[in-house]
Amino acid sequence: MSSPTPPPVPVAPRRRTSALKMMFWLLLLPIALIVGYFAVVLNWNYSTGERAGWVQKLSRKGWLCKTWEGEMAMVSMPGAIPEKFLFTVRDDAVAENINKVMGKRVTLHYEEKVGLPTSCFGETRHFVNNVLQVEEIPLAPGLVVPSKPAVSPTTPSTGTPATPPLQPAPPSSTPALPSPAPQTPPAKG
To answer: pTM of this prediction?
Structure first.
C-alpha cells in the first residue's frame, strides 16, 4: 500500500507590491517632509518689527523668481553714518506704495523669516509687508522736526495769511564812518 500523498502546500505568490510600496514611500516621504518644511518656514516668523528711514533703492531682481529687493538708509542721529537695511518685498501692491514714497522718511513693517533654502523667495531674511510715511522726524526725546512746512495762521475776516506789517528800520545814532581809500601795491622796479 502506498501512503497517501499529502496535499500540496500552497506557495505564497511573490509579492511585487512590496517593491512598489517601498518606492512609493521612498518618494512620498521626502516630498511630504519638504512640503511640510516649506509650510512651516513660510508661515512662521522668527521676528517682526518696524524700521524707519529713507528708502534709497527698490528694484525687481531674479533669474527665474522675480522679487522686489530694496535698501533703506537708517540714521539714528543727525550727522551719524547711516546704517543700511536690506529688505525683500513679495507683494506688488506694497512695492508700488514704497515707490510712491521713495526719498521720504518712512516706516517699514517687516517679518524676518529664517531657514528659507533658496534665494527664489528673496535675497534677504526681512520681508516687508507694509509701509507708512512718517510726518515728523525725531531728533531727540521731546525734540521733533515736522517734515511738512507749517501752515501760517489766517485771519478770519479776510482769509489771507496774517503777516506783521513791515516797519522801517530805526535811524542809527552812530555816524557813518568813511570807508578807507583803496591801497595800491607798490610798483616793483
So the answer is: 0.58
